[in-house]
Design brief:
It is built from 6 helices and 7 strands; from the N terminus they run αβαβααββαβββα. It has 221 residues and is α+β, with helices and mostly antiparallel strands. The protein is elongated. Helix 4 packs antiparallel against helix 6 (184-202). It has a 5-stranded antiparallel β-sheet with strand order 4-3-7-6-5, sandwiched between helices. Strands 1-2 form a two-stranded parallel sheet. The longest helix has 19 residues, at 184-202. Helix 2 (38-53) links the parallel strand 1 (23-27) and strand 2 (58-62). The termini are far apart.
Length: 221
């Protein structure tokens, strides 16, 4: 009852000061609910929150710190707050095809939450975004302890080459190339050349008629 009263107080403040705000509710600690009851319990909580939120709309997520649900929830929330998201995804797909990458991902710079990605070939690990995010965040933490600042990383083996680099003021980019013999300089130049174009999209000033291909060197060149 106390939580619901606090929630309604927050809603009243939102209605008065920011009626257009988006509302997200995380129904947490779902791991404590028996698995066969989770969906039913979540739907009941969701119905209660939707009823209490009227006339505002509420988007609910069931979450737990012990699995990928919390990461997915926050990524979904960040995704809905991105301006020009459809144009961003379209240009990311174009960029991926031009450089012949297997996959390209955009991460939010501070949290390393996934905000957009383009995948040209299926991948068996559906939790790879969360894994990559956690690895990079731990590496950044290690760098900060040594008074160093993380900017970029390259990982290469016999199966692929992966590049992570600062992209725009608010994002990092990760490019996965299937050809491990591809020179690093070619991929890094393409990332650099695409950076200004995506910065314009991020600031919502880019023109929809612009083509990312103008800034990119195709792989066969």
């Amino acid at each position: 009852e106390k939580d619901l009263h606090y929630y309604q107080s927050c809603l009243e403040a939102i209605l008065q000061n920011s009626a257009e705000a988006k509302i997200f509710c995380l129904v947490h600690k779902m791991d404590l609910v028996p698995e066969e009851q989770r969906e039913r319990i979540f739907r009941l909580r969701q119905e209660d929150l939707n009823r209490l939120s009227k006339p505002l709309e509420c988007v609910c997520f069931k979450t737990s710190i012990w699995d990928e649900t919390l990461y997915k929830a926050w990524s979904s929330i960040v995704y809905t707050l991105i301006p020009n998201v459809q144009q961003l995804e379209s240009n990311l797909e174009q960029f991926t095809n031009i450089i012949d990458a297997n996959e390209v991902l955009l991460f939010e710079r501070a949290t390393f939450l996934i905000i957009s990605h383009c995948q040209r070939k299926p991948h068996h690990d559906v939790h790879r975004f969360e894994k990559v995010s956690n690895i990079i965040k731990q590496f950044k933490l290690s760098c900060s302890k040594l008074a160093a600042q993380f900017q970029s990383m390259e990982v290469r083996n016999s199966n692929f080459a992966a590049f992570i680099d600062v992209f725009t003021p608010n994002t990092y980019i990760m490019v996965i190339m299937a050809d491990p013999t591809m020179p690093s300089a070619a991929t890094l130049i393409n990332i650099k050349n695409a950076r200004k174009h995506f910065e314009k999209l991020e600031s919502a000033k880019g023109s929809s008629s612009q083509s990312v291909g103008k800034a990119i060197v195709p792989r066969d060149s």
